[in-house]
Queue: 4 jobs
Job 1
Amino acid sequence: MENPIFCYEMKVRDYECDAQGIVNNANYQHYFEVTRHEFMENLGLNFLELHNQGMDLVVASVYIKYKSSLFGMDKFRCTVERIERKGVRYIFHQKIVRISDNVVCSTGEITAVCVIDGKLSRPEYIDKIFADYI
């Protein structure tokens, strides 16, 4: 596994599992979201403060590839592997890896854009924050 730029550990909660005992597919998107928010909070980005200033970083698209299932009580690492910049889009490349056997359970490409005062924008402020990672 390459060195991710950010790693956040979590544990599957019972209510996240479906009747088959595996994590319901929608929860993987939640795990990716939690990890991105923790990463950005670590960098000093506060979503409420940004919103109050008229700036919102919002998800534009999500692509998730499921590779191996997580089960109840599994501990896992969710990572931000890298951030790619394409025009006004920030593409977060992420992984979910089960800790017990180091198996990649899921990968994701989440595209976010910045809206300033209701208009799609390329904010210099966020570019500066992500400068070491793009």
Note: The radius of gyration is 16 Å.
Job 2
Amino acid sequence: MPKLAKPLSAIEVKRLNKEGFHAVGTVPGLGLSITAEGTRSWVFRVTYGGVRRKMGLGGYPAVTLALAIDKARLIKAEIDRGVDPIQNKKITSEAMD
């Protein structure tokens, strides 16, 4: 079982400013990625079929901490049901085109 980071509050997430990946707790693999330019986006690191991947969940602050947690939990539930979340996202995107 992966280590779970200390859960961060919305205020603590807002105060993050150091470049890199910052685990936010609550859901293993969920974190806020901050680039050198200062852009922020939610990233969910998942393992499916023995392959580790990263899924973007949207930009911060447009996607709040609570919404990022909800999205990560839904993706985790898909994985638990045996659904590849990245492939599922591609199929959904193609259907919308």
Note: The chain has one domain: 10-96.
Job 3
Amino acid sequence: MKDELILEDFLPYRLSITSHTVSTNIARIYEKRFGVSIPEWRVIAILGRFPGLSAVEVAERTLMDKVAVSRAVTKLIKNGRIDRQFADADRRRSILKLSEEGQKVHNEIAPLALEFERQLVEDISEEDYERFNSILEQLLDKARQLGI
């Protein structure tokens, strides 16, 4: 390890730049074709897999800021892409599900997202990709430990 901080070589910075670049490129597709932002797509994706979550649970599962989730949920409800009901026992807790329109968007974006991912990693060997995923998991685990 180095003793001098060189930003462009600093792992957290490099991870952030990589994530931002990938997210920005795929977000252009989402926005252009479907009129959804990254936070909105993440809400749609998580509700497509786990219907019936509250906004708080969506935030927990996606590690998104609660305010960003709230804004995305509000816009998705307004645009008719998710439906909100309230729990009988606790009227403060909302239950979110994809509407028919939201399910349609999910079903159209998901294959595009998977194709984007395929193109992104197509020049990486399967062995390198598996190792990369293992390293990412190790980094995430360690980051969580260091955050305590």
Note: The mean pLDDT is 92.
Job 4
Amino acid sequence: MIREIVRDNKKLMIKSVEATINDLYIIDDMIDTAKANNDICVGLAANQIGESIRIIVVEMGGFFVPLVNPKIISHSKTTYEVEEACLSHEGTKETTRYHSIEVEYCDRTFTKKKQNFSGFVAQVIQHEMDHCEGILI
């Protein structure tokens, strides 16, 4: 089901709680909502559709891939400055991102995974994980 994008900063600033296996139903709504906005959407956090749980979806290879309870466990020493847009806000904001990250997460079956990401995908993951922390970009 396509959900409305949350634009209320007070709601977006609430730190998300760990997702449980009972929360996985939200993934389909997140993917539907991201696809409905895919002309401008490359990632989405659950709190952007009103669910304060740690689930993000990120476009990779033409598909929106869910990462449940993602945690960055290591990152490159090098960073870069970039301007980012967000579905929940108008305009752009400058921020600092790591060039590469290693992330632990669960997939949509709650199977634990560990994966390295770099470039634009790493940037999107960091942006969506900021949403989970209540950080506005």
Note: The CA atoms of residues 103 and 115 lie 5 Å apart.
